[in-house]
Amino acid sequence: MTLAPAGLAAALDDRYRIVSVIGTGGMATVYEAQDHKHDRAVALKVLHDDLAATLGPERFKREIRIAARLQHPHILSVFDSGESDGRLWFTMPYVRGESLRDLLRREGTLPLEKALLITREAAQALAYAHKQGVIHRDIKPENILLTEDGSTLVADFGIARAVGDSAFDTGISGGLTQTGLAIGTPTYMAPEQATGESVLDERVDQYALAAVLYEMLTGAPPFTGSNAAALIAARFTTAVVPVRQTRADVPPDVDTAVQRGLELKSFDRFPTISGFAQAVAPSLTTPPQFNTMSRARAAVVPKSRLRALRLGGATLALVAVAATAFVFARKSSAAAPDSGPIRIAVLPFQNLGDSADAYFADGIADELRAKLLKVPGVQVIARASSLQYAGTTKAPDQIGKELDVRYLLTGTIRWERRTDGKSVVHLRPELMQLADKGPATTRWQQAFDQPLTDVLAMQGRVAEEVASQLQVTLGTGAKTRLAALPTTNAEAYDAYLRAVAGVTDNRPASLRRSIASLERAVSLDPKFADAWSRLALTRATLYTNAAPVPELAAAVRYAAERAQASAPGEAAGHIAWSAYHGSIRSDFARAERELRAAQVLEPNNAFLNLRLGRAMIEQGRFVEGIPWLEAATRLDPVNARQWILLADAYRLNRQYASARSAQTRVEALGVETPSSIMARVGVEASLGNLRSVQDIIRNAYTRIEPVDVDVYLSIYLEYAWVLDEAGRQRVLRAPLAAFDDDASTMHLVHAQVHRLRGDLVQSRAVAEQAMRSFDGDIRTSPEDAQLRFLQAFAAALAGRAEAARPMVSAGMALLGRSKPSVTNAAYFGELRARVHVLNGDYDRAFDELETILAGPGLLARGHLTLDPMWAPLRALPRYQRIMSQAPAVAVR
Fold first, then answer.
1. How many helices (H) and strands (E) does the chain have?
2. What b/e sequence results for 249-270 when a residue is b if at least 16 CB atoms lie within 10 Å of its CB, and e otherwise?
3. How far is it, in rounded angstroms, from Cα 387 to Cα 640?
4. Helix/strand/coil percentages in the chain, nearest 5
5. Would you say 572 and 330 are in contact if contact means Cβ atoms under 8 Å apart?
6. pTM greater than 0.70 (yes/no)
7. Cα–Cα distance for residue pair 283/254, rounded to 1 Å
8. Residues whose CB is less than 8 angstroms from the CB of residue 507 and which lie 6 or more positions away in sequence, other chains included
9. Cα(502)–Cα(439) distance, rounded to whole angstroms?
C-alpha cells in the first residue's frame, strides 16, 4: 500500500489521517482519508507538483470555489480544500462503488436501459452546472462514478471554467487552456476543444457525454488512434460508425441522437445538454420538451410536497405511489347483486421456469385479477394482500379465513423459451372452493399451452371459465370486456409487467426504472391505454416526490391525454387525469370527479377506493373520505400499507384511538418498516407519550437497521429530538443516498441535529449550506411555496432572521395563487411556526399554532410538550391557554 508523502501526511495530521491510495491520474493522486472532525471517510485529492506549480495557490482556490458551489445529487461535491507541505489538495465524499471505467472494463458493454440511465443522471448534473455558468471539460468514464445504490455521480470539476467570468478568460490568471497544459482527454474531447479554441461552451460536455454513451453501447469509443494526434486527426477525417451497426437492439432514435451529439461542429449538436438527454430517451412518445428519464431534479427527493407526504402520507401524491405499488385493476364490473358479492383471491402463481421470469408469473396473476374485476357480482382481493402468500405453506382454508373469501385461484406457470424463437407459456390454473368445515376442494382445473403472443387472450378464457364455475351469468357486454386485450404486442406487455415488478418503493430510482419500462411499452404499442395510465401515475409520483418542474408536469398531462384517447370511456383515462389534477395541479375537486367516474366502472377496485377517499380528505371532508379508506382495507385486508394510510388519515383527523387500532392491524401482519414505525411514533408523540415513542424506536432497532429508522424519522417527521446521541451520530454519518440524494434535506436535518447536540456554531454553518442548496432548488421550481418555507427554516436555523422573514412572505405570496391540500396547509403552518420561534417572533408562532390545532393536522399538543423546538414558548401565557383548551374534536 503506497502512502502519501510523509510531509503531507504530517501537515494534514490534525485534520485528516491518510489511509491508502485510491488511484492516480494525470492531474492528481487520490487517497482515502479519515476526517477527524466529522468522523467520516473522505477522498483526499492532491494535485501533482507540476500542475500545482502551474496553477498556483490563488488559481487553485478559485477552481475549488467553482466546484464547491455546485451542490447537486449527481455531482461529487467538495468538502474542504487547502495547501499543505507545498501541495494543493481538496476533499470530497468517499463514494463506495466504482467508476464507469471499472464497470466497462468488467462488462465491455452495458444494457441499454442502464446506459441511458447513467447518461440521464450525468446530463442532469451537467445541466445544473451549466446553469451555474460552469462547464466540466473532462467528461469521461473515469469521472463518472456509480454508487452502490445505483446512482450516478459526476466527479472532478477541477478543470472547469466559469463561463463569462473574465478572471478565468483573460490575463495571466486566465483559463486553464492558457497555462500550456493539455486540458481534457483526447478520446472524449470535442473538436473545438482539441484544436485549442479560446471560446468554449457547454456543447463540449455534450460531445464528451455522447462519446461516453457510444462506448457504453458499443464497447469502444467513437474514434481511436495510436496517439493523441492520430485520434484527433481521425475525428476530423472519418465519420462516426453508427451505433446500430454493432448493436442492433439500440433504437434508431437513440443512435440518431448520439450521432448528433458527436457532430464535428458545435452548432450542429443539440443547443443544450438537456436537449441531448431528452433525445436519447427510449421512446419518442413523450412531449418534445421532456422525457422523465432526464428529469430536471430526478434524484432530489425531499422537496415541496414530499415533505408533507413524509409527515403522514396524507397527500394525494402518496396515493399515486399506491398505484405504482399496488397494481391498479381495470374496467370493473357493475355493482354486486343484492345477495352479496362473491369474494375471490388470485394467489401468486408458482413460477416453474427461470427465476428471472418471476415478474412474468406475477403479471399473469395481476391480469387475471383485472379480468375478474369485470365479472358482475365478484369482489377480487387486491394484489398487495394476495402477494403476501407467495411461497406460503399455509393451508387454503387458513388463507380463506384471513382474506374472508370463498374461492382461491392459484396455479403454476412456466415460460418456455424455445430455440426456434417460438416461446410457449404453460399455465395450469386451479380454482379452489373453501368450505365452512372440512378441506378445500378443487372446483376447476385446466391446462393451457399457448404461444407467448396468445397469452393475453388465454387470460380472458381463464377468467370466463372461472366466472362460469362461480355460476355467474355473463352478458354479451361482459364477455366482450373479458375478451378485450390491453395490448396485442407481447413485447410491450412484457415491458409493462417489468414496470409493475420494478417498483419496490416510492423513491426516485425505483420510479425511474418503472418509467423507463413504461416508456418502452408505449413506444411499442402507442395505444396501450393501461401503460399510458400507469405512466401518468408514476410520473406524477416522481413530480411530487422528486422533480416538481413544468416539463414533468407536461409529461404527466401528455400521458393522461394518450390514456384517454387510447381507451375512451374506460377507467384508465380517468385514473390518469386524476393523477394530473391531484398531484400536479392540487385541484382535488377535479381529481375527485375523475376518480368517481373511474369508480363507477370499477366499484370493487381497492386502489380507487383508497384514492377517492384521499381526494376527499385533502379537501377536508373526513366524514366522506375515511369510509372509502376503510372500504379499501376490506378489499385489501392484509396489505399493511393500506392500514398505515388509514391510520395516517385517522391521525390527521385527530382520531388517535382509531389510528392506534389501525396500527395494531399492521403489527398483527408482522410488518416492520420505517414507514410503519413512523406512523406509530407519530400517534404516540401526538399524545405526548415520550416513553412509548422511545420504546417503539428501541424495539424497531432489533428488526430494522438503526440508521434507516433514525434517518427516516429525522427527515419525514423531523423527530431527531427523540433519538439518543448514538442515533444522532448515525444520522450525521449517513451518506447522501440515505437522504434520497437530496443535499438540501441532508443539510437541513444535520443543522437540526447539531442544534439538538448543543453545537450552534456547526448548526448555523450547515444551515447556511442548506440555504444555498435551496437556492438552486427554487431556481428549478420557482412556484413551489414549500421550498420557500424550508429555506426560511434553514435561514432561521442559521440565525439569519432578517433573511428568513422575506422568504416566509414569498411563500405566502405563492400560496395566495393556489389552494394547498389540508395536509400541506397544516405542515406549511408548522414550518412557519418553527421559523417564527427561531426568529423570536413568538406571537406569530402562537398565531400559527392556534390555527393548526383548531383543525385537522399532524402537529398536536403532545409535540409542544416534547419537542425542544417549542421550549421558548412554554413559559408564556399564550402557551398555557393553548394547552388548557380541549383538543380539536374529530370531524366524523
1. 38, 17
2. ebbeebbebbbbbbbeebeebb
3. 12
4. 55, 10, 35
5. yes
6. no
7. 9
8. 301, 545, 740
9. 37
Burial bucket for residue 871 (CB in 10 Å: 0-12, 13-18, 19+): exposed
C-alpha cell at 615: 381526494
Asked if residue 505 lies in contact with residue 539, where contact means CB atoms within 8 angstroms, the answer is no
Task: Please name which of 548, 599, 551 lies closest in space to residue 571, comparing C-alpha atoms.
Answer: 599
Q: How far is C-alpha 156 from the chain's CA centre?
A: 26
Beta bridge partners of 745: none
Enter the C-alpha cell of residue 13.
Answer: 495530521
Whats the size of the chain, residue-wise? 892
Q: Are 869 and 599 in contact (CB under 8 A)?
A: no
Buried b (16+ CB within 10 A) or exposed e, 806-821: ebbebbeebbeeeebb
Residue ranges of the alpha helices (H) in 798-860?
801-815, 822-839, 842-853
Residue 184 pLDDT class (50, 70, 90 cuts):
low
DSSP secondary structure string for all residues of 397-448 = HHHHHHHT-SEEEEEEEEEE--TTS--EEEEEEEEEE--SSS--EEEEE--E
Separation CA 790–CA 748 (nearest Å): 8
Strands 28-35 and 134-135: unpaired
Burial label, 715 (beta-carbon count in 10 A; 0-12, 13-18, 19+): buried
Among 49-63, 279-293, 468-482, 640-654, name the one with the lowest average pLDDT: 279-293
User: Which residues, at least 6 apart from 381, have a Cβ–Cβ distance to it below 8 Å?
Assistant: 343, 344, 345, 346, 403, 405, 635, 636, 637
Active site residues: 138
Q: Binning pLDDT at 50, 70 and 90, where does residue 466 land?
A: confident
Question: Which regions of 183-229 does DSSP assign to beta strands (E)?
Answer: none
